[in-house]
Amino acid sequence: MVEWRLGALPTREWGIRLRRWPAALRLYVVEVREARAAKAALGGVVPRGDVVTVIPTYRRPELLVRAVRSALDQPIADHHIVVVADGEPVALDLHDDRLTVVALRHRRGSPALARNVGMRISRSRLVAFLDDDNTWTSDHLDRLVAALDGGAALAYSRIAWTDPDGMTRAELCLPYDRETLRDVNYVDASAIVLRRGSHRFFSRLPRHRNDGSYEDWEIAWRIGRRHRVCHVAVVTVNVTVHDGSHFMVADESRAGP
């Protein structure tokens, strides 16, 4: 209990950090260089908005179009979308002044790095995140921005896993509680909107499927140690279940009420 109150990291996370900090340092250096190159490619044009949404992508052209359209369909004013392709340029047949597309110079294999590059090359008060195989409901940003305007530093919503035909497989919705978060990774990156800050980037530590804690877990844990995290108990994120998704049968048992 004392360890929890002090905000100590779970043992599994200490092990990950001790083993992989050299790789994280290398990825940080790569991130800075990739952001510098992306800024140069934009010719000094800085994507701006009250909210900037960052979408990392790699070889999912059809799903990416769905994701971007769901972001563009948000009615919130002053919103810009930044797509960061992981080493391969993408051509989006979507012509909108609110959309910027950049590509990393090489394949990095790190969604966290791509998200961080998107944050580094943009300017905004708030930052939202959406994976290329997910979509938002039309009220996603309205609901989460309202939560942040109420004083939270990070807000996240309920997500639903759906089959390609649209049938819901499971939902995930747990109120923010650091003691529970120690053991259950229930905050999904696509459900996060946060207040921008100088140190509010995703962890560069390489993450593996069986780690039990991912970069979305880490940023929620870190920000929640000193700042308020708000849970919006409404489904605003749809995650398509496919061969490359992180959905597992075990996820169905932690869906919450």
Structure description:
There is one protein chain. With 257 residues, the protein is an alpha/beta fold. The chain has one domain (2-254): Spore Coat Polysaccharide Biosynthesis Protein SpsA, Chain A (Alpha-Beta Complex). The chain is built from 7 helices and 9 strands; from the N terminus they run H-H-E-H-E-E-H-E-E-H-E-E-H-E-H-E. Strands 1, 2, 3, 4, 5, 6, 7, 8 and 9 form a 9-stranded mixed beta sheet that branches. Strand 1 (48-57), helix 3 (61-72) and strand 2 (79-85) form a beta-alpha-beta unit. Helix 2 (11-41) packs across helix 4 (111-120). The longest helix is centred in the first third of the chain and has 31 residues, at 11-41. The chain is globular and about 45 Å long.
How is this fold's topology laid out?
Layout: H1 2-5, H2 11-41, E1 48-57, H3 61-72, E2 79-85, E3 99-103, H4 111-120, E4 123-129, E5 134-136, H5 140-149, E6 154-162, E7 168-172, H6 178-181, E8 192-195, H7 215-226, E9 229-240
Helix pairs in contact: 2-4
